[in-house]
Amino acid sequence: MDTKKLDLNLLVTLEALLAEQNVTRAAERLHLSQPAVSTQLSRLRTLFDDPLLIPTQRGMSPTAKALELLEPLRLALDQVRATLAEHRHFDAPTASLTVAIACTDYLQAAVVQPLAVALRKRAPGVRIALRHLDPSLLQAQMSSGQVDLALMTPEQGPGSLRSRHLFDERYVLIGRQRHPGLRNRLSVEQFAQLDHVIVSLHGGDFTTPVDDGLATLGYRRNVVLSAASFLAVPEIVAHSNLVALVPERLVRDRRKTLRVVECPFPVPGFGVSMLWHERNHGHSGQRWVREVVMELATTL
Questions:
Q1: What is the average pLDDT across 95-111?
Q2: What are the φ/ψ torsions at residue 158 (nearest 5 degrees)?
């Protein structure tokens, strides 16, 4: 059989013909004209090199090959129908899906962690594959299907991707609960005198834009530790007299072990969006996951 010439509509017609064993009734079932069904039957006979249905006094009788085809044909078409139905309607409690998400370590803690907990309750068959976020590779990764969803500041993302704003983040100052120098209303001078941890995503830097802002006010802070990730910072601070400026959502559940206060001078925050490729835009499962992410971001 030449599968290049295979038309799925022909198989649907064959299913109806084998069920009805009558061209007129099969045409009514398919909402087609009788000549159209007769033409398709002729093509089916050529395709399978078999008469398939033989005229009798009471209609048509299936051949041995037709009877042999009936069950696998029904199973195959039912599977196609189920696949199409799944893409139209995503049944979260029973569906199976893997979603590849690219994001920073901070957003793994702030968004992906509560997402994973929510999915275990709402959609236990949905799995998350975490990917390292590299904005320069994101377009290619999404085009090839390596990444389904990215969580990031929108300015870093390719403009060709679809996006949706999730939330605006701000920075807070954290220290251990009984830190001797941390108080609710710090002066800029008191802030500068504390021992600081900063995060250097490139590794090894001991200054950030915060230090530029301090310099314009005539101060310089004492940075004693440069970390490569935000995730380790709360734990470091909780067991020392160090302090750190961190995104607020990172420490939303740490207020029993950490003291959280306002920075004494304005520190610009940042926006967080989710980005996805056009190839996933209409997929019902991917769309459902995006809605859950949006819901969690708004709630948290």
A1: 94
A2: -60, 140
Closest Cα to residue 42, out of 58, 56, 24, 23?
A: 23
Written as one string, the DSSP assignment of 256-297 is TTEEEE--SS----EEEEEEE-GGGTT-HHHHHHHHHHHHHH
Short-list 122, 75, 81, CA closest to 285: 122
Shared domain check, 158 and 114: yes
CATH number of the domain bearing residue 110: 3.40.190.10
112 and 127 Cβ atoms separated by less than 8 Å: no
In the predicted model, is pLDDT for residue 2 greater than 70?
A: no
Tell me what the mean pLDDT of segment 268-294 comes to.
92
**pLDDT tens digits along 162-221:** 999 999 999 999 999 999 999 989 999 999 999 999 998 776 789 999 999 999 999 999
Per DSSP bridges, beta strands 270-276 and 149-152 are: antiparallel
Token digits for 203?
């590794």
Domain range for 31 is 8-87
Is residue 234, in this structure, part of any structural domain at all? yes
Quote the pLDDT of residue 269.
94
Q: What is the spatial distance between Cα 237 and Cα 258, in angstroms, rounded to a whole number?
A: 8
Question: CB–CB of 164/282 below 8 Å?
Answer: no
Q: Are residues 139 and 190 in the same domain?
A: no
Dihedral, 81, 83, 84, 86 alpha carbons, nearest 10: 120
Query: For residues 65 and 50, is the Cβ–Cβ distance under 8 A?
Result: yes
pLDDT digits (tens, 9 = 90+) for 229-252: 899 999 999 999 999 999 999 998
Domain count, the chain: 3
Cα four-point dihedral sign 191, 196, 200, 203? positive
| Domain identity same for 216 and 230 | yes
H-run or E-run covering 10: helix 8-20
Distance of alpha carbon 266 from alpha carbon 263, whole angstroms: 7
